[in-house]
Design brief:
The structure is a single chain. With 251 residues, the chain is of the alpha/beta class. The protein is built from eight helices and seven strands, in the order βαβαβαβαβαβαααβ. A seven-stranded parallel β-sheet has the order 3-2-1-4-5-6-7, sandwiched between helices. β1, α1 and β2 form a beta-alpha-beta unit. It is globular and about 50 Å long. Bound molecules: nicotinamide-adenine-dinucleotide (NAD). Nicotinamide-adenine-dinucleotide binds next to α1, α4 and α6.
Length: 251
């Protein structure tokens, strides 16, 4: 397998596990991340190419695709994964933070899809995987921008799937519940102060409240799911939400 993949936010957490899983299957992987030091280290460890980007900036999205094509000649698979969380009541939510979150988690996936599209179309084959969230399907309080971006990403994916069908391009979202990553570690502390409760209560009473299986998901589980959805075995999946949520949305 020598297909070329971009994984955004691949320096850490889910993106790292996705890059690792794809490398184990011999994909050529470009990790794009804001965190240059950690991203370069991750790329070196996994045998990936690293591009430093701030995906809230349109020009960096364009440059990422240009650099990938300059290095490998094409792009076959795009995994839009970069993201972050800000937990805050709606009436205190900073406007600038809203704009940045929407830029990174909704506008960047649109821009990267647009810029990768001509290569995938030319190849008659492409895979777009958008890492949304269970919060792309249901809401929780204090996460207005995150939930809006993730719901939007689910919509973008469906639209992409409809336009990609005739060109052999599929687009799907993965919607996980809480995955054990640095993002969630930070959120436990944030939620504890926003709700005024102890960190272990955040895990048991908020994060795992709606889960049928009372544990966090491992990042490697998402890596394996991405590997499946980009494979030829998954060629009939498009426009789908792959919900991996320990039973959260079953009720
Ligand atoms: N961890 C969870 O519980 C969970 C659940 C559902 C969905 N997700 C989604 O999975 C994705 C990855 O989350 P994670 O938990 O691995 O978080 P993480 O914090 O471990 O990794 C996110 C990565 O995105 C990068 N990033 C952030 N802003 C960026 C920017 N402007 N430009 C480029 N890179 C940027 C960070 O540097 C970091 O390396 C996110 O989109 C998140 O919303 C996470």
């Amino acid at each position: 397998m020598d297909k070329v993949v971009i994984v955004t936010g691949g320096a850490s957490g889910i993106g790292y596990a996705v890059a690792q899983s794809l490398r184990q299957n011999n994909y050529r992987v470009v990790i794009a991340d804001l965190n240059q030091a950690v991203g370069e280290q991750a790329a070196q460890t996994l045998g990936c190419h690293f591009v430093a980007v701030d995906l809230s900036r349109q020009v960096d999205n364009y440059r990422l695709v240009e650099e990938t094509v300059a290095k490998y000649g094409t792009i076959d698979i795009l995994v839009n994964n970069a993201g972050f969380q800000h937990v805050c009541p709606l009436d205190e939510f900073p406007e600038e933070m809203w704009n940045t979150m929407l830029s990174v988690m909704l506008t960047s996936p649109f821009l990267l899809t647009k810029y990768c599209w001509p290569y995938m179309k030319k190849n008659g084959w492409g895979r777009i995987v958008n890492i949304a969230s269970v919060h792309g399907q249901v809401a929780s309080p204090f996460k207005a921008a995150y939930i809006s971006a993730k719901h939007g990403l689910v919509g973008l994916t469906k639209s992409t799937a409809l336009e990609g069908g005739e060109f052999g391009i599929t687009a799907n979202t993965i919607c996980p519940a809480y995955v054990k990553t640095p993002l969630v570690d930070r959120q436990i502390a944030d939620q504890a102060s926003t709700h005024g409760i102890e960190p272990d209560k955040v895990i048991s009473d908020i994060m795992l409240k709606n889960a049928a299986i009372k544990r966090m998901i491992e990042p490697e589980e998402i890596g394996e799911l991405v590997n499946y959805i980009v494979s030829d075995a998954a060629r009939s999946f498009t426009g789908s939400n792959l919900t991996i949520d320990l039973g959260w949305t079953a009720q």
